[in-house]
Amino acid sequence: MSAPVSISLVVNGETHDVVVPPRKLLSDVLREDLHLTGTHVGCEHGVCGACTILIDGQPARSCLTYAVQMEGHELSTIEAVADGETLSPLQQALHEEHGLQCGFCTAGIVMTFEAYLRDNPDPDEAEIRDVLSGNLCRCTGYQNIVAAILKAAKSMREGKQA
Amino acid sequence: MSVDAPFSHIGKPLPRKEDRRFLTGQGRYLDDVAIPGALQVCFVRSPHAHAKINGIDAQAASDLPGVVGVFTGKDLAQWTAPLRLAPPIEGLHPVEMTTLPVDKVRFHGDPVAVVVARDRYVAEDAAELVEVDYDPLPCAADTDTALAPGAPLVDDTLPDNLVSHQSFSAGDLAARRSEADRVIESRFNLHRLTHVPMETRGCLADWDAGRAHLTMHIGTQVPHPMRGQLAARLGISETQVTVISPDIGGGFGQKIALYREELTVAALSRHLGRPVRWREDRMENLTSASHARETHCVTRAAVRSDGRILGLELALTEDFGAYCFYPANYMARVIAMILTGPYKIADYAFDVKVVLTNKCGNGPMRAPMAITSWVMDGTIDAVARELGLEPVEVRRINALGPADLPHTMPTGEVLEDITPRETLEAAVEAVDMQAFRDRQARAREEGRLLGLGICTVVESTTYGSAFYKAAGIPGSGHEAAWVRIEPSGVVNASVGLMGSGQGYETPLSQAVAEGLGVTPDTVQVHMGHTDIAPYGMGSRGARGATAGGGTLYLCAQKAQAKVLAIAAGMLNLNDAQGLRLHNGAVERRLEDAWQATGLTLVDVARRAYLDPTALPEGIDPGLDVSLTYDPPAMTYSNATHACEVEIDPETGRVKIARYLVAEDCGTVLNPLVVKGQQQGAVAMGLSGALLEQVVYDANGQNLSATLADYLVATSCELPNIEIIPMHTPNRKTPAGIKGMAEGGIMGSIGVIAGAVNDALAPLGVSADQMPLSPQRLRALLREAGNTD
């Protein structure tokens, strides 16, 4: 329990100077100090995936990361995914395909697949299910989430061709 | 335009209104509600299953900088009243519990003290420093131990651990057994599960000392009953409590009761005069929130050689855990009541025992009667196996057909407006039974284990007040709503439900839109705030659509009648006959067509609020309508599930090759949302049947305290689910709604067991204990001599 330290966090392109105890979880700092409450905490032991954000563009569990480790890294959270009022293709597809119910796991799933679809524009269902297995959803049974990801991938591919 | 058009808005697959905020990270769940200066608590929990509390030393914890105080059961006993459950139910012992234990702990995870601190990190540090002096006691970690002579008493005020025991018999079972060709006994052991909402429990209590008023932010399925409980237990009036439920990250029945931790937090806020909050961690949620199931059933079916069941007997034992937040027979009685479901069985008896053990207490979890369809259709499958008959034929010879309805079950429950025979035939046709049997036979020659299960579900959905009265349970099944057309013509509405993720805002706005005659986008349904919503019974069972949607629909119709009465005056008509409100416009029926009148709801609203002297004689100003509605004693939906599996003999893994559901759940408010509920219920049922398990050892230690131990199915274990919609309306409910969302659990548990046992049948073994995990199936395969 050493004393709080000053750090700079770059989140969604903005720099935030915060003073936090070294043991404070990144998820808690995002939510409590930066008021970015779209990142949810579901288990605090790295299984459920609800707290997934992007660290330097790669999905990571913010509940297994200390905020003080994040100086010099670029963080992205759910709050930065939509372009103003326009949902991303993945968000839009999740809406259309009823790929969310209570919404608590949704941010983690969106962050995981924003990165995945960026790197893997044409996945099949088995590949999607394999990646999605890192995010627990208790409401949907995953079927509509998978359908939405397939749909988003297609619309992103078509958008790129256009 | 046709005069008798079907529904305009009910039945449309509208995407959900709430999605945008969830998709963009702007949902507002409990932990997102910020109140400056709120203190945080952490509970100190028992490491023992059963132990006497000799004393609690909180000095070191209290001395930690940032700690406000440490409080125990003795403190809470001064500030709160105990919970006493003593409904007039024969065979049920009255029980009482204090807010926190004072003398002894009863399960591993029981809260014994609470630390209040400036933040959660400090509160958790301090909780580690609280020294509790325990005297461990012998424990009863299972029902056999708990029922044995001389067993340790879980509740010292009771004569034994058999907290509830009821028996029932209709017809003459001895006569049926004697005339039967065979009496076939079957066992069904559904293990202990827990709800695992992705958002754990928690609350934020804010006592306003000046007004002497508690605002309780808490994700609850039942805001008004929660308010009543808080007021009663805190010794204040219902006018002094406001319950506000933010967005809820899943409930599944776990967010109904007022738990001891929540009451403690409310009492602490009042005692300290500060806002106080609690966020349960996942370990607490898995070990100490609420458990479910662990139901053991034995059936004895007296059958003719053609498979006809002449008589059926059920012996049920439920492991209820250590504390009763509900009458102990609450879940088990429904299983026994509706067991015979879709089958013609007149001679029926049950013996239902509910037993206290040193485990986390049981509560209703999505489909409290989850085991029912496994027990019934599993009995049918056992009959088919024993008699060498095709399971579908045994179903057919016992099935209720259209000509048998309405049908009074031996327990007195009346089934009408259901279609179990139709869904059975649709599912059987869809799977093409003969083609499967051919495929199965070929696969068996290759040493592959394919199986097909069929399970028909009759799901009790909406419990009306008459049900509660007959059951002796205090409470009601009615619901309340208001619909308010504002001066600008937009529509606010409210109902006493509170959704926990289903997406109520959209289908309920469709029910209002349909009843009133506007478009759903102009309707906002407000829920989860006891000062805004009317007193309702909240969300439990599958009552949302019939009780909630039905009440809003009727209330909106009442509002439309007032709108049209005003419109008639504006149109210089004597009365509103031949008028309707359609998509916000007043229309008049001329000959066979609806014609525009030029008037809209906006015009009528302006007149009602801003020019009341111009209203027709006898019409009061404003457009503010309320209504209560009490559904029938019970409504039922039905479905047939079919599932094809392949068991890997080497690993014991069950792979689901195909899964389909033919379902009749009446008029559907929003098919998109209903499909989501169907998929979600099946998924939760399969996850529980295949993987999840709360594990206690013989000393009552909970060994499944993380999500790495308590396995919730991921996207790799669950199949796509085909749905065959076969909806027919209920003639006694508003708009013909029946309700749904729990039957998928009942059907999936039953059908997966049926499919696995069909696959195992040639080996001469069958599974009667869940979960059907790889380990268990490998054990069965070894028993059958497959030792590869």
What does this structure look like?
- The complex is a heterodimer of chains A (162) and B (788).
- Chain A has 162 residues and is α+β, with helices and mostly antiparallel strands.
- Helix content of chain A is 35%, strand content 15%.
- Chain A has five helices and five strands, in the order ββαβββαααα.
- Chain A is globular, with a radius of gyration of 16 Å.
- Chain B is built from 21 helices and 30 strands.
- Chain B has a seven-stranded mixed beta sheet with strand order 3-7-1-14-11-12-13, with helices on both faces.
- The model of chain B has no long low-confidence stretch (mean pLDDT 96).
- At the A-B interface, helix 2, helix 3, helix 4 and helix 5 of A face helix 1 and helix 19 of B.
Q: How many strands of chain A? A: 5
> End-to-end distance of chain A, in Å?
55 Å
Using only C-alpha atoms, the radius of gyration of chain B works out to: 28 Å
Strand content of chain B: 25-35%
Q: Report the biggest beta sheet of chain B as strand number plus sense, adding barrel if it closes.
A: 7 strands, mixed
**Residue windows where pLDDT falls under 50 for at least 5 positions of chain B:** none
Q: So how many helices of chain B? A: 21
Classify the helix fraction of chain B into a percent range: 25-40%
Mean pLDDT of chain B: 96
Distance between the termini of chain B: 70 Å
